[in-house]
């Protein structure tokens, strides 16, 4: 994670306000040199778009994956933009409360608690947050 660029709030607003921009970021973080199947390492794939988020299927072995597999966003029902905002808020203010996150992001306290817990665990163990952006305190 140390080689990830640090961004300001202004940059965050310009780059991470849409599902598409967040998905593109996750794709580039997960596969910086292009798609590679986690099972057979083949680089050709199909995109299945009948779901909320794209499902990537290897053309050789049929293995399927998503952008969030292996990250703290795996199996989430919360929008990726909400996750990115929560990550940004927690990194900006490590003392921010779950209630503040819930109110600012207009999500339930239970959802905010789960997200904040996962984010803080990932910050304590960076290998857990493989695809999450690093945000500066500027």
Automatic annotation (TrEMBL):
Transposase zinc-ribbon domain segment(s): 18-64
UniProt protein name: Transposase
Pfam families in UniProt: Zn_ribbon_IS1595
InterPro entries for the chain: Transposase_Zn_ribbon
């Amino acid at each position: 994670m140390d080689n990830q660029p640090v961004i300001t709030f202004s940059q965050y607003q310009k780059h991470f306000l849409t599902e598409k921009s967040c998905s593109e970021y996750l794709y580039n973080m997960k596969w910086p040199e292009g798609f590679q199947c986690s099972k057979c390492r083949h680089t050709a794939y199909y995109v299945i778009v009948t779901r909320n988020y794209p499902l990537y299927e290897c053309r050789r072995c049929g293995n399927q994956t998503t952008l969030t597999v292996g990250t703290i966003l795996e199996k989430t029902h919360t929008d990726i933009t909400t996750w990115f905002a929560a990550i940004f808020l927690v990194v900006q203010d490590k003392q921010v409360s779950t209630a503040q996150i819930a109110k600012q992001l207009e999500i339930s306290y239970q959802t905010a608690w789960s997200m904040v817990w996962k984010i803080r665990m990932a910050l304590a163990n960076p290998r857990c947050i493989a695809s999450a952006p690093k945000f500066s305190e500027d």
